[in-house]
Specification:
582 residues, mainly beta, six-stranded mixed beta sheet, 41 strands, 6% helix
């Protein structure tokens, strides 16, 4: 009954407020791209100018068109009076180009990331990633699509005329105060918009049309479908095309997730209206967007209820069918591209992560959440990962609310949910996966191409309130040389020729520096946990030095076995494998 009443309310709302033409972001293409982050105003409500932020405009940013294999040079100019960052969400780039919270852009400064596009054709996006400010900057409007094209995708008969039969749709909910200003943070997000447009309408041709869906909300999960349960075909997930189209009537999208779908409007009459909807009445408890965001009614979230869209079926936008375009695509291809997932036998390491709240009880949802009982610390590397390691990450949600888990640097393949293989819609490359309460999700990925950067990569919950609250960790990918190999980076620093291997707790380790730098030396176990800090960011003049691995350096006994010995000198890092004998 609740969702029927909400539908009636929303139907009344739609009849009272006129539909607004959907905003279609401009595009930027080429190998040199300029983004200007700026303040602006935008008319969400007739006659009212709301303060916003955007890139190259008042709100949102241009869609960046990139070609796989091309080298791109990007200039991000920060014209807002706040430090920020820009992260290329889902893209496989080096950590120093990734735009995480360490790579800040001060007001008035320009950041110049440059990289070769290594990603497959797909839909990615960019957004700020400053610690404790991500939600503010994204909610105010700084976000944009990235479309990568490649030869595999180009060989398929798919809609790809941007703004004609191929449309980017960023779905969001926001909260406005009485002055119609955006409220951040907020759990009262009842205003639905697509591409920053309330009550959005898009004219679609009577043919096969491609929609690139992005959940750009701070917290809300959508259960996307079409009115009348009209079927559609998913052709891509976060990291690109699937092997075959998947026919669906529902597609769940959590914050940060993307999907590409094809909808065939050929059977509709000209002038027909089809609604893109979220069927949130079908959500179980424990998802932000359900009747109850926790697993039980006693676990309340401030200002979450009453809200007519929580646990209700509601319209996201409407499509109005018009005449076909010239040279229309009229069929859905039977096959797309080869997809070869990594297998469990490929794995070198398994890491176990737990998502948990700071506190339990009825007020648990209003507190902060942790990963492995640890809150984010900019100065702590949670994992050190050898380059080319293939790893299984097993993530268990011990909190009463679902969390979308996102990892930077890589795309992964879901192995299973509580032991059950993923649905076809989740069988492709992913970088965000929602993990429901009391669920364990395992995925497999390979860390390749980039290592030894002076900044780390992130992993975190993509509910921006949780991320800002510290539900995030970081990892470094490092080059591992053989047990008896010596560093070849003599222009940076070198270990002396009597570098001990095997070694024991009383061994003195010698190293030399050709110039004055800050030095850190740490020891890690096989799963990347730091077990000892031998030198902690100490300033050294050029010269020869030694340090001993002794009991004072470790917090608990260290058994014999293989370890990684990592030196960072002036931003350059190298890691060696070594054998500890006791």
């Amino acid at each position: 009954m609740r969702h029927i009443i909400a539908l009636l309310m929303l139907g009344i709302t739609s009849s009272v407020f006129a539909q607004n033409q959907l905003l279609i972001p401009d595009t930027l293409s080429g190998t040199t791209l300029n983004l200007n982050l700026q303040y602006g105003t935008f008319e969400f409500y007739p006659g009212v100018q709301t303060e916003t932020m955007g890139a190259n405009g008042n709100i949102l940013g241009p869609t960046l068109i990139m070609n796989s294999g091309e080298f791109v040079d990007i200039y991000v100019n920060n014209n807002i009076n706040d430090t920020t960052t820009i992260h290329w969400h889902g893209m496989h780039v080096s950590a120093e180009n990734d735009g995480g919270p360490h790579t800040t852009i001060a007001p008035g400064e320009t950041w110049n990331p440059s990289f070769t596009v290594l990603d497959k054709a797909g839909t990615y996006w960019y957004h700020p990633h400053l610690h404790r400010k991500t939600n503010l900057h994204v909610s105010k409007g700084i976000a944009g699509f990235i479309i990568v094209r490649d030869t595999e995708e180009a060989a398929l008969e798919l809609p790809r005329k941007y703004g004609v039969d191929d449309f980017p749709l960023v779905i969001q909910t926001k909260t406005f105060d009485t002055e119609k200003e955006i409220v951040v943070p907020s759990n009262a997000d009842s205003v639905v918009m697509v591409n920053a447009t309330r009550n959005a309408e898009l004219q679609v041709p009577a043919q096969v049309v491609r929609f690139r869906l992005l959940n750009g909300s701070s917290q809300r999960v959508f259960n996307v479908g079409l009115s009348g349960n009209k079927p559609f075909f998913q052709i891509a997930s976060d990291g690109g095309l699937l092997e075959n189209p998947v026919e669906l009537t529902r597609l769940q999208l959590s914050p940060g997730e993307r999907a590409e779908i094809l909808v065939d409007f050929a059977d509709a009459e000209l002038g027909d209206i089809v609604y893109l909807m979220s069927y949130a009445s079908e959500f179980p408890n424990g998802i932000y967007g359900a009747v109850y965001p926790g697993m039980s009614a006693i676990q309340t979230l401030n200002n979450y209820n009453p809200n007519p869209i929580n646990g209700a079926d509601f319209n996201l936008m409407q499509f109005k069918v018009v005449n076909q375009t010239s040279s229309p695509v009229t069929t859905v291809p039977a096959n797309l591209v080869p997809v070869t997932p990594l297998t469990e036998n490929d794995a070198d390491t398994t890491r176990n992560l737990t998502l948990n709240p700071v506190q339990m009880g009825p007020n648990v949802l209003n507190g902060e959440f942790l990963i492995n009982n640890t809150s984010f610390d900019m100065d702590v590397i949670n994992y050190t990962i050898p380059l080319n390691n293939t790893e299984i990450w097993s993530i268990t949600n011990q909190s009463p609310i679902a969390h979308p888990f996102h990892i930077h640097d890589v795309q992964f393949y879901i192995l299973d949910r509580n032991g059950v293989p993923p649905a076809p819609s989740e069988a492709g490359r992913k970088d965000v996966v929602i993990i429901k309460p009391q669920e364990t999700v395992r995925f497999i990925t390979k860390f390749e191409d980039f290592a030894d950067d002076p900044v780390p990569y992130m992993y975190h919950c993509h509910m921006l309130t949780h991320e800002d609250g510290g539900m995030m960790g970081q990892f470094s990918v490092v080059t591992i040389t053989g047990i008896n190999d010596e560093s070849t980076a003599t222009e940076k620093f070198e270990l002396s020729q009597n570098y001990p291997n095997p070694f024991n707790p009383s061994t003195v380790i010698n190293y030399s520096l050709p110039k004055a730098v800050n030095v850190s030396i740490s020891v890690y176990n096989l799963i990347g946990q730091k077990i000892a800090t031998l030198v902690n960011n100490e300033y050294h003049e050029a010269g020869n030095y030694s340090v001993s691995f002794n009991s004072d350096a470790v917090s608990s006994p260290v058994p014999s076995g293989v370890y990684f010995y990592s030196i960072n000198a002036g931003g350059f890092s190298s890691t060696k494998k070594m054998l500890l004998l006791k």
